[in-house]
Amino acid sequence: MIKEIKIQLRDDKREIPQDISKVKFGKTFSDHMFLMDYNSKDGWHDARIVPHGPIPIDPGAMVFHYAQEIFEGMKAYRRPDGGVQFFRPYENIKRMARSGERVSMPAMDEDMFMEALRKLVEVDKDWVPSAAGSSLYIRPFMFATDVGLGVHASDSYLFCILTCPVASYYPEGINPIKIMIEDEDVRAVRGGTGFAKCGGNYAASIRASKRASEKGFSQVLWLDGVERKYIEEVGAMNIMFKIDGKIITPALNGSVLPGITRMSSMELLRSWGYEVEERLISVDELMEAAKNGKLEEAWGTGTAAVVSPVGRLTYKGEDFTVQDGGIGPVTQKLYDGLTGIQSGKVEDTFHWMEKLEK
Amino acid sequence: MIKEIKIQLRDDKREIPQDISKVKFGKTFSDHMFLMDYNSKDGWHDARIVPHGPIPIDPGAMVFHYAQEIFEGMKAYRRPDGGVQFFRPYENIKRMARSGERVSMPAMDEDMFMEALRKLVEVDKDWVPSAAGSSLYIRPFMFATDVGLGVHASDSYLFCILTCPVASYYPEGINPIKIMIEDEDVRAVRGGTGFAKCGGNYAASIRASKRASEKGFSQVLWLDGVERKYIEEVGAMNIMFKIDGKIITPALNGSVLPGITRMSSMELLRSWGYEVEERLISVDELMEAAKNGKLEEAWGTGTAAVVSPVGRLTYKGEDFTVQDGGIGPVTQKLYDGLTGIQSGKVEDTFHWMEKLEK
């Protein structure tokens, strides 16, 4: 439990977007943010909800130099009864602790974290949109605030939660995306930070994504950093394939992000009777399946997009169309299944949802 | 050329440390800092020198989430004649541009960058210490300032230069350090960002350094991320060995930082007639040489420490003493040679030094 969360409401309320479909992902922030400080002497302290806005930070703070920073991405949904619910928040809380361990940052008590999430969303409850496919995107993050240029773990950190009302991550909705298999840059390697949601992984990915975007692709598909032959993940998502009737997704080998939508998708698919394999899958195996017509479907899974069908794959200049560039039946069923549970329109038999109202 | 650098001097001057040996590395900042903004529309603009201190930054700024941030480390020295000189500043300027290219950040015109360095050090000239081994450490860095949670290159950046009077990086001075060869965590991989001075590489390194420090080691020695068998670099330095009369340093393979002290050391050593090899060197070769008594010397090179003798190496629990734990003759000669040129006590036959006074 947090001793006390001080709340300072803003006087100049921002305008809540009326048409959520016009809101660009992660660009419109709710009125308030949660902040909490840490140092090794006092532990977590000074929990507060304040108007979202700039805060004074010394340019000598370690975060600007050594990227000791981690984050999470999660969502809260407006139920048909008007209430609000979180999708598997404790999974994000646990993952943030694992990310922190990799880059020597302190974990927060799980109940304390959940309390912060509840209180902040409660304060900005009106910002949770209700249109189909919309949600409140929640971004908890933490960064090193020690001022100094020596390279070592910071002693002090700022923990922050921002929230953004969002429609769908991809402006085109659940339309199939085109992805390019990246064979030059590497995002992560076993032993590195690939499994952690830390900033450096994303900085490493930007150049390839930019090049792919310039060529008309939505995302890149990363290969492993050791052999450059095994499929790892897409820019902002995990990846799944339906090959010859079976569903295959890259195993968590240390450099792949352990996605919560990935995990949930596997649980849901298995509950429907699909065979799901987590294993190494080489780009050669994938290309072979595509050539032989055995690659039936491909989709990405992630918090932002939930499920994104992949309509086209390109590798070393060779182009493959998946499911005739359309949305496959399993992809569609998975999207409907997940978003149904998230929005409260389908019964939550997995007990994934955590209501805002205790 | 920068159109105009606005200068706002501080009223409350800080106290310049009298005894530089008591100053902890990177913890004491000079009075002022240089700031300059970038966006794609206006390019670089609003160059200014202002009192060093916190600046308001939105927590939604991309730097806190995706670590789009790069930095440099360089030094200015007080000459015996009282003047001030920079050590190979254009090499740092060029490297920062290469780092930026890897993480999709804009470069700055070289002369503009040099002008900023000159003007800032000129303003805080009194902060350049004169004691033996001391210098003004200069930290140019740049980070993404776009506010938004989409993962892509930021459109806007803040470029900043901080300076710190420093003694020696290691409190023990040029005393030999103990290093541990890391066989669990990986810092960088070919295709990744290892050659760039970007924050993510350092965040990835902190846990191993902390574990090594808890076991009594100063630094870790990294192995390559692909085969985990080739020597790459030490935490904050490149590494060189003298084996059987020859000097060997890991080749720049994409995951090793192209150190400016490394490059300068090789030039100096070759000018003295030493054979210097840049090549792959496996940990097995190194251990073999240590066992056979052929590992004559080992040292790290870097801006902060210049040259650090390695007195002990540990790998998988096996311990090797180098040069009886003392300072080898080549290590000492290299340290004296480099610091002699840097401080202006030895003739700069390489034309490495750039005087502050034009």
TrEMBL record, chains A, B:
It is an enzyme of class 2 (transferase). Pathway: Amino-acid biosynthesis; L-leucine biosynthesis; L-leucine from 3-methyl-2-oxobutanoate: step 4/4; Amino-acid biosynthesis; L-valine biosynthesis; L-valine from pyruvate: step 4/4; Amino-acid biosynthesis; L-isoleucine biosynthesis; L-isoleucine from 2-oxobutanoate: step 4/4. Pfam families: Aminotran_4. InterPro entries: Aminotrans_IV, Aminotransferase-like, B_amino_transII, BCAT-like_C, BCAT-like_N, BCAT_family. GO terms for biological process: isoleucine biosynthetic process; L-leucine biosynthetic process; L-valine biosynthetic process. The keyword Lipid biosynthesis does not apply. It catalyses: L-isoleucine + 2-oxoglutarate = (S)-3-methyl-2-oxopentanoate + L-glutamate; L-leucine + 2-oxoglutarate = 4-methyl-2-oxopentanoate + L-glutamate; L-valine + 2-oxoglutarate = 3-methyl-2-oxobutanoate + L-glutamate. The keyword Amino-acid biosynthesis applies. Its EC number is 2.6.1.42. Keywords: Amino-acid biosynthesis, Aminotransferase, Branched-chain amino acid biosynthesis, Pyridoxal phosphate, Transferase. The modification N6-(pyridoxal phosphate)lysine is found at K197. Belongs to the class-IV pyridoxal-phosphate-dependent aminotransferase family. Its cofactor is pyridoxal 5'-phosphate. This is branched-chain-amino-acid transaminase. GO terms for molecular function: branched-chain-amino-acid transaminase activity. PANTHER family: BRANCHED-CHAIN-AMINO-ACID AMINOTRANSFERASE (PTHR11825:SF44), SUBGROUP IIII AMINOTRANSFERASE (PTHR11825).
